[in-house]
Amino acid sequence: MASPVSAPLPHAHSPESPSGTAPTLVVFTPAGVLLKAAPLKLALRRLQQMGFDARADEAALAKFQRFGGDDETRLAALHRVAQQAPSVALASRGGYGLTRLLDRIDWPLLARAVERGTRWVGYSDLTALQLGLLAHTGAGSWAGPLACDHFGRSEADGGVDEITRDVFLEAMSGELEALGFRCDAGHDGLDVTGTLWGGNLAMVNSLLGTRHWPKVKGGVLFLEDVGEPVYRIERLLLQLAQAGVLGAQKAILLGQFTDLKASPLDRGYSMKTLVEHLRQVVSVPILTGLPHGHVRMSLSLPVGRRVQLVVERRQALLGWGH
Predict the structure, then answer these.
(1) 299, 164 in Cβ contact below 8 A?
(2) Which pLDDT score is estimated for 321?
(3) 187 an active-site residue?
(4) CA-to-CA dists, residue 107 to 24, 207, 272, angstroms
(5) How do residues 16-33 score in pLDDT, each as one tens digit?
(6) Which of 124, 141, 206, 300 is an active site residue?
């Protein structure tokens, strides 16, 4: 379901704060453990070369079982970064761990950091943080790259994807106003507006029924996931449909569902047939091809922003500049 970006993209440039100094960027570890320091060091060096005053939080390399430090350590790191209010608060990696912290996060503190100019960035497990922030305070964030996954990858493993980097730079500078991508056929003429929200499908569903769930109606919901069999993806999507979530949106954008675990029992059952079935269940437009997810080339998306989604033939444009 991957599809290349086909709309004009911004040119990369070094971000700059209003004072003319390099914007501050703090890498922190709120979820899964970083097993090695090398990817973090490489990510920081590259981020500095990109124009950021980048550094790691003091607990970024903490380790406890599968987590980046015990719950107290990770919660303290999250609140410490919020108090510092850097220009960018970038998660080192996802994994699992934020669910443990949701009931104890000082959401107004994180929102005050946003008011002071902080952009919280990440995806995967960070979906829980981003949607919790939206639910409790209405503050926005960015579903974007992770420090080690996207900027700490060695050249032998593919290095940094240029589009991911360029879009990230434009987003963090505040100049990014729209993104384009090639979607599947059948949506020509679509023109809707609504709050952009979503993220990792498993994490979205994990919040359903909790006080951390953002009650967005008339929105544009984007979803992605990794390492799941197709039937589990369908089950999660049908749960959202049966809970009334999908039907309450203006449009649904399906990003990249990668490392699918096939089974000999599938017998022709696939993501394509899943989408066909889902379209019979809900009448909301369901578009595929959004370049976002657990892939090298992944666009940064403004969670909580009011966006306009326009489709001409198979060219989708997602804009929020006005």
Answers:
(1) yes
(2) 79
(3) no
(4) 21, 16, 39
(5) 665 678 999 999 999 999
(6) 124
Distance from C-alpha of 88 to C-alpha of 239, rounded to nearest angstrom: 34
How many residues appear in the chain?
A: 322
For residues 209 and 252, give the distance between their C-alpha atoms in angstroms, rounded to a whole number: 20
Is pLDDT at 72 greater than 80 in this prediction? yes
Residue 231: Cβ within 10 Å count: 14
Res 253 pLDDT > 50: yes
162 is catalytic: no
Q: Which domains does the chain have, with CATH numbers?
A: 24-173 (3.40.50.10740), 178-319 (3.50.30.60)
Q: Is 124 a catalytic residue?
A: yes
pLDDT in tens, 240-249: 999 999 999 9
Catalytic pick among 170, 224, 228, 234 = 224
Catalytic hit among 136, 150, 187, 294? 294
179 bridge partner residues: 318
